[in-house]
Amino acid sequence: MEFQNTREFARQMDAKDKLAKYRDEFIFPHVNGKQVIYFTGNSLGLQPKRTKAYVDEVMDDWAKLAVEGHFYADKPWWDYHERFSAPLSKIVGALPSEVTVMNTLTVNLHLLMVTFYQPTQKRYKIICEEKAFPSDQYMIKSQVKFHGFEPEDAIVEIRRRPGEHNIRKEDVLNTIKEVGDELALVLIGGVNYYTGQVFDMETITKAGQEAGAYVGWDLAHAAGNIHLELHNWNVDFAAWCSYKYMNSGPGNASGAFVHEMHHNDLDLPRFAGWWGHNKERRFLMEPQFDPVRGAHGWQVSCLPILSLAPYLASVEMFDEVGMPALIQKRDCITSYLEFILHEIDKEINGNFEVITPADPKERASQISVYLHGEGRQLFDYLMKNGVITDWREPNVIRLAPVPLYCSYEDMYEFGQILKEGILSHRK
Fold first, then answer.
1. What is the structure's pLDDT at 427?
2. Looking at residue 293, what DSSP letter applies?
3. CB 157 within 8 A of CB 129
């Protein structure tokens, strides 16, 4: 498509956009009385307007029914989480029995590592990516030390080549071969939070398993953002947060995936709790743990229904839209944003460097760009002028044009504000 850096063209694109109506489903902050351009859905998604009704429903049931809400609410609390199975399975490419909701992301990764990181004196190493999100780095180091190994020896980081911003797939595969019989686990972020690089999960999963290791994925920046086929890719386990692209609210409940090939293996270790116990016998208070056969069997505690309500509102919206439609707009609007950046760079004789892969297969709803020669004052200018974006040292801004609520005119308007901000600091 031949893009144009004009407001008229952007409005024409919005007029053709089949998802444009969903923009009105969200509540936007305002700066100086003007609705913001929101680029931080990769950190915290906007609030859907329908969310309040879902939360109010739980509050009303609690008020009217009290403890009886567990069984007699319109959406009974004791099986509230089961309403996520079908829509979430479509979002991540799984069987309904392979997905569940519980806890928060790092907690879930820790719990899943109880099952899928069982090191021996020979097979104990973990492969992860360089510059993973810090929480993953802390988690992996603590797991390794808990099992009596030294992180410097047990953790193998796949690094970027000198002068490059992204990790090459061949370097991942070669590292798996090099670690070989010592490899216990591959655990990588499906989409790197900093650069927005999307990894080839299918190929990496196959390679890790052929080496005799389990393979898991942190899908914090992937779930609700990219095409996933966790079941068909034979992924052992995965977890994701819900508050980024799935708009469930700050710090909200996490999703988890466990492949069906592990569901009936009762010898696999796990931390048990009563909400993972046989549903039909849960309230008999039996002393022997009998896990639910499926991802729900990894649940530990009863679930926070007030937290799940906003998440349910969002996944039902995703079910209406469908991932194929989201991905189609995502690819187009992200390409338009990249085009705008290059156009503004030429107009101001700047020195922008996009560090997100140019290949649409290796990126999703994020463009990370080095603003060489610009400092924090440009970020402050953007924020004061209604562009909510994310700054990472030394001078990178991350821009996420989320397809559910970002418009093509937003992309054009951002370019104008960015140009004004840079030129104003040159005077």
1. 66
2. S
3. yes
Answer whether 203's CB lies under 8 Å from 188's CB.
no
| Per-residue pLDDT at 212 | 98
> Using DSSP, how many helices (H) and how many strands (E) does the chain show?
13, 17
> Which residue is it, tokens 């440009």?
378
Segments of the chain with pLDDT less than 70: 427
Instruction: For residue 255, list its beta bridge partners.
Output: 101, 240
Task: Give the strands of the sheet with 390-392, arranged side by side.
Answer: 352-354, 367-371, 396-399, 390-392
- Rounded to a whole number of angstroms, the distance between the first and last alpha carbons of the chain is 36
Do residues 74 and 61 lie in contact, with contact meaning Cβ atoms separated by under 8 Å? yes
**What are the backbone dihedrals phi and psi of residue 405, each rounded to the nearest 5 degrees, phi first?**
-135, 0
Q: What is the pLDDT of residues 15-55, one digit of tens each?
A: 999 999 999 999 999 999 999 999 999 999 999 999 999 99
Question: Residue 276 in 3-state DSSP?
Answer: helix
Q: Following DSSP, what letter does each residue of 182-243 receive, concatenated?
A: GEEEEEEESB-TTT-PBP-HHHHHHHHHHTT-EEEEE-TTTTTTS---TTTTT--EEEEESS
Q: From CA 138, how far away is CA 189, in angstroms rounded?
A: 14
Task: Record the pTM.
Answer: 0.96
Residue 397's identity, in one-letter code, is: I
